Amino acid sequence: MVSQALLPENDPIRPGGSTPIGITVDGKPATGLTGQTIAAIMMAEGRLSWRRSSVAGEPRGLFCGIGICFDCLVVVNGERDVRACQRRAVSGDAIEFQHDELPGVAG
Ligand code: FES
What we know:
Elements: E1 20-25, E2 28-33, H1 38-44, E3 49-52, E4 59-61, E5 73-76, E6 79-83, E7 94-97
Parallel strand pairs: 1-7
Antiparallel strand pairs: 1-2, 3-4, 5-6, 5-7
Bound molecules: FE2/S2 (inorganic) cluster.
FE2/S2 (inorganic) cluster (FES) binds next to loops.
């Protein structure tokens, strides 16, 4: 899958003006536009996965993109279990990755 930021003036649905916003992803600055989800900003930055599955440690990121699978969980400003595909980014958001071992499973 290839993703890239689409500038509003090139978007065929003409969403109107967008304002650049800045967030941090795992401590590194990332930029997006108002209205974009956290997942969209991370993917536009070239990141396709941002957590690992609990049992096998397989990479996970955007899967369904509609809030059903919970593969895209991140920590936003200290709040755990946020679905990156559903949360619109707000300037200043601090995104961190989360990985949880299953109880009783040695990592
Ligand atoms: S990608 Fe499935 S819930 Fe976010």
